Amino acid sequence: MPRSPEQNEAMRAATRERIRGTAMRLFARHGYATVNMRRIAAEAGMSTGLVYRHFATKEELYGDLVGEAAAGLNATAARLRGPGSPAELLRAFCEGFLRDLAGDTEFVDFYLLMNQAFTHGTAGHGGPEGAPPAVRDLVEGNTALLRATVELIERGRAEGGFRRGPADELATCFFATLGGLVTMRSAVGDGFAVPSAAVVLAPLLEEDGHR
After folding, report:
1. In terms of pTM, does the model score above 0.70?
2. For 130-164, how does the pLDDT look when each residue is reduced to its tens digit (9 = 90+)?
3. All residues at 6 or more sequence positions from 7 whose CB lies less than 8 Å from its CB, including other chains
4. Is 27 within 8 Å of 35 (Cβ atoms)?
């Protein structure tokens, strides 16, 4: 019995996601330059031709992954700039990050891929202006998220409940902590103890340090 158009579309979508997931893992763990489409196809358990049906080049596949990351950063920045208590907005972001970190390794691979792309965009190709468009978007998204966090901390201090200190330095230390946790999760594996949001936010929020 022939498959319906809906079934064919579901199969195409599943294949595409398998390619993306495999590519993300390989790019994150081995670097963009050392991975080719043949290797991605072999790891995904499919023919190279099938991979090329979904992504014409390695650059297109990489750009698709990096573009998703850029969109996620911009969406998070928009949420942090939205209405609500600064402390609750920051806590919700941190709790979501830690939930993802406690899950499977896909989140770790995705984060490591973003870090590689940041380096690609800031150090390679003469800086962001010379980097591929998706990488430039990622660098801009990261800048937007950092600025939104600085603004949130400044607003939170004005309303009370945030610790003293330069907002830009506090935001930098916050994201350095999150990045360090991802690195530890990658190195330790399933034995990694994911901290609570209260522990991570203790340097920022006065009340979280006493829970």
Report:
1. yes
2. 456 888 888 899 999 999 999 999 999 998 889 99
3. none
4. yes
